[in-house]
Design brief:
Length: 84
């Protein structure tokens, strides 16, 4: 299966990067970068796209933070995938 980059020519997180840079450009200047605090939302969206920290945290909370259960689930999913 082709990844997002192969199909569009840009990475999947590039739109989030553009939003973050646009926010910085609009809210900062050469004298002060204090306006970057207004860009926390776009920054968090970009980091989530890159690292999936919220997604992983949600998975851990759903599974009760039990690493053993998480590993068994991953192994079961891999086994099902390898059957086909």
């Amino acid at each position: 299966m082709a990844n997002f980059h192969d199909l569009t020519g840009v990475s999947r997180c590039f739109p989030f990067w553009q939003d973050l840079i646009a926010c910085y450009v609009m809210n900062t200047n050469a004298e002060s970068d204090s306006g970057k605090l207004k860009c926390l939302g776009p920054r968090d969206d970009y980091y989530e796209c890159l690292h999936h920290t919220k997604e992983v945290g949600d998975l851990l909370s759903v599974l009760g933070g039990n690493w053993g259960e998480i590993q068994r689930t991953i192994q079961q999913l891999r086994a099902k995938h390898n059957q086909y």
